[in-house]
Amino acid sequence: MHGDPVEAFDKAFELAARLAEAMRQALAERGLTASRAEVIYVLAREGELVQRALAEALRCTPRHVTGLVDQLEEAGLVQRRPHPRDRRATSVALTAGGAATARWMAESRHTAARALLGDVPGDDLAAFVRVADVLLGGVTA
Amino acid sequence: MHGDPVEAFDKAFELAARLAEAMRQALAERGLTASRAEVIYVLAREGELVQRALAEALRCTPRHVTGLVDQLEEAGLVQRRPHPRDRRATSVALTAGGAATARWMAESRHTAARALLGDVPGDDLAAFVRVADVLLGGVTA
DNA sequence: TCAATTTACTGAACTGGCTTCACTATGTAG
DNA sequence: CTACATAGTGAAGCCAGTTCAGTAAATTGA
Q: Residue B21 in contact with residue A135, Cβ under 8 Å?
């Protein structure tokens, strides 16, 4: 039960790399990338959005959103519609397929979480979350 | 003390994204990228290596290693030398500057770990590591 | 009402990480 | 000596993402 800060810190980085890779693979099987998936995630959470708002939510350039929406529209997951009031703006919404993909993502998350962590004692999970929060708080600063 | 698997899982992903970004920034200040830093890390750990071995350690193509070593050599952090026995091979070693960079990386890791996690109870750290290990084990499969 | 300014999107061009493919030079086995 | 495998690299290209310039529409303000 030693609990060395450096060991925990290193473990967090190793975890980061592996989780990113695992997610990348899982998404790739559905033809998604992390960025494209994030667009779907945001649209599912926030509802229909104008591209500019999407750029802010994704913390990327408006130009890049154009490209992402191009790709997702091509894949039939989102749909561009003229904004009712502002004719400059383009509103982006999930299609039925996009909504289904969003549900798949949410479900995979739950399934994976239970499969991987279902047998872990609740106290350990709570401690994990506490430490993760400390790291998250410190890293932002 | 609830300890919800899904919450912990989500937290792990959030942590992954934030840690990657934080590391990217820290490395960028020294003109490094994650890949270039990994070359230095591997060379510091394993000692002088042939490019082919480097490619295996980094899990990337030999061609990419050529590029990475080009950049690091340009920056004066590593040095190419002909392999003593195999005239096809090129051996890569850290320069003094590269070794100093490796020490800086190790030290930063320790410093950050203690700054961020120094006040966290040892039991929580141990639990964190346990959960991280469960995730690492499950993700590989 | 009209000119000046701002805002939303997109084309063109570019950077950076990374890959594949083709090629050269060298080593190794029969 | 031939046949084959291996180490590195040039050329070309893919993908994520950016900047810059341009167009069209909205907003401001005299």
A: no
